[in-house]
Design goal:
- About 50% of the residues lie in helices and about 15% in strands.
- It is an alpha/beta fold and about 260 residues long.
- The chain has a 6-stranded mixed β-sheet, with helices on both faces.
- Helix 9 packs antiparallel against helix 10.
- The chain is globular.
Length: about 260
């Protein structure tokens, strides 16, 4: 059996590829577990300073949850459906959202359902001109369950989010960029180069500072501003006395590039 998630590491960037192209990279339980294991592996690897997440094949980033699989959990009852399906999916998107290294989605095709929820959860996203997005769970008689009812309205605004959630209609990559779901739309052949270039623009900076910014921004979004400012202060305090801040300040004083 092919590995459900492929891992390539080059130039401090880990490329993670969802590898079920024959099923449009549907998020089976095995694929989700493999992706979580890959994140565990690279989280403590000092050779990795950024992550790009994409889908195998030419058709899909991910068409969403594996409906055949989670239907079996639903037939087993509420307990099994929540344990096996909902908690697993929510754990994945929470992991991506709070990951200490920047995660960039390179959306190469369909990003429906859970695939769209992954795009919502990661820190940055670039879409191919061939990408297509949708929140089609309502067509199955259910809400999104991997965090989409919470993250999408926070990202794009309540009314725009509810329109997408309540209609299930697909929308274009241009629309995704307009509402803030993705950072850029590029020609299909330029997708991975563009994602790598964005990653390189980040990895030239202090890894500790990058982690602090991700942590402060992610945690602060769900807090009042006053609480968020405390998190920001805590993240700065973590860097005081560390090598990277000392190097950045020393380099600034003599007008040379810092060595992170």
């Amino acid at each position: 059996m092919p590995a459900p998630v492929l891992i390539e590491i080059e130039d401090h960037i880990a490329l993670l590829t969802l590898n079920r192209p024959e099923r449009l990279n549907a998020l089976s339980y095995g694929l989700i577990d493999a992706l979580m294991a890959a994140l565990d592996r690279i989280e403590t690897d000092s050779a990795v300073r950024a992550v790009i997440l994409t889908g195998a094949g030419e058709r899909a980033f991910s068409a969403g949850a594996d409906i055949h699989e989670f239907s079996a959990s639903v037939r087993q009852g509420r307990g099994a459906a929540i344990r096996d399906f909902v908690r697993r999916g929510q754990a994945l998107t929470a992991r991506l959202e709070s990951f200490g290294k920047p995660v960039i989605a390179a959306v190469n095709g369909l990003a429906f359902g859970g695939g769209c929820e992954i795009t919502e959860a990661v820190h940055l996203a670039i879409a191919s001109e061939r990408a297509s997005f949708a929140k089609p769970e309502i067509k199955l008689g259910m809400p999104p369950t991997f965090g989409g009812t919470q993250r999408l309205p926070r990202l794009v605004g309540r009314k725009r989010g509810l329109e997408l959630l309540l209609t299930g209609d697909p929308f274009s990559p241009e629309r995704a960029m307009e509402i803030g779901l993705v950072n850029a739309v590029v020609p299909h052949d330029e997708l991975l180069p563009a994602a790598r270039e964005l990653a390189r623009r980040i990895t030239r900076h202090s890894p500790d500072a990058v982690t602090s910014i991700i942590t402060a921004a992610t945690r602060g979004l769900n807090m009042a501003v006053a609480e968020g400012l405390l998190v920001e202060s805590e993240q700065f305090a973590r860097l005081v006395g560390g090598r990277d801040l000392a190097e950045g300040l020393a380099a600034w004083h003599v007008r040379r590039p810092p060595k992170f």
